[in-house]
Amino acid sequence: MAELEFGFSLSPSVDLALHEDLVSAAEEGGLDLVGVQDHPYVPAFVDTMSLIATMLARTDRLRFFPDVVTLPLRPPALLAKTASSLDLLSGGRFELGIGAGGYWDAITTLGVDRLSPADALDALEEAVQILRALWRPGGTVGLRGKYYSLDGAQAGPAPAHPIGIWIGAQGPRSLRLTGRIAEGWAAPIPAYLPYEKWANANAILDEAALAAGRDPADVLRMSQLVGTITDTEGDAEARQGSAPIRGTAGQWARLIARLATEQPFRSFVFWPERQELGQVERFAGQVVPAVRELLG
Questions:
Q1: In terms of pTM, does the model score above 0.90?
Q2: According to the model, what pLDDT value does residue 6 have?
């Protein structure tokens, strides 16, 4: 079995002191990843990329990624520059979670025209081409698309490492796109893709990867789990519906071990219902070691 990685989701509030405490606990506890939600239209949130830059500067080992970028509000040419810059300045600790756009009623309030779901996915595919082209320095980039075009743009700088593009896909077409072109799948939280649909989504990814001549194992599968680590046993089966997981560290560990065994998930991101230091500490210090013990 491939090595598992673990992380937690950070909500980009204005509470910098809390962010520093949570991220420090994650780094000291041995977690691998921190995902930062990206909702630029929420007035109580700071900018996701700015927060990631700040937290990268305060850590030495953790990798960070937007979970996931709202592409319609971040033009891909500038997103490419931001991503490669964050990766270079952090010594290769930035990955790119990206989505076609979900909350269009909110997105359009910031001056962006609404796209249909099909058009938004086409725009996402064009954006991925632009990102990769601009990460290969040494020439000019000319791409003429329906949604994005570049006319002689200078590529570069190259990121410090091959940045993973992890798509936040949930529908069949977006899953097929992910299996065909992306390095990973940042599975939506269960409120958008219920637990019982995860296995079929992974099967669609596998089929699309194979059809594109890829090894399905090369597409990282990220499970994002919302809930609370409790002192008493609760409901932690996560087989149907979208209810948050509420159970002991042992129950959480058994759930993650099952997902890693029954499905090709290799990355697990904990979304605490409340952004509390104790929850991140318990995930890192109790849940993750128990998972590793269960899986040997």
A1: yes
A2: 98
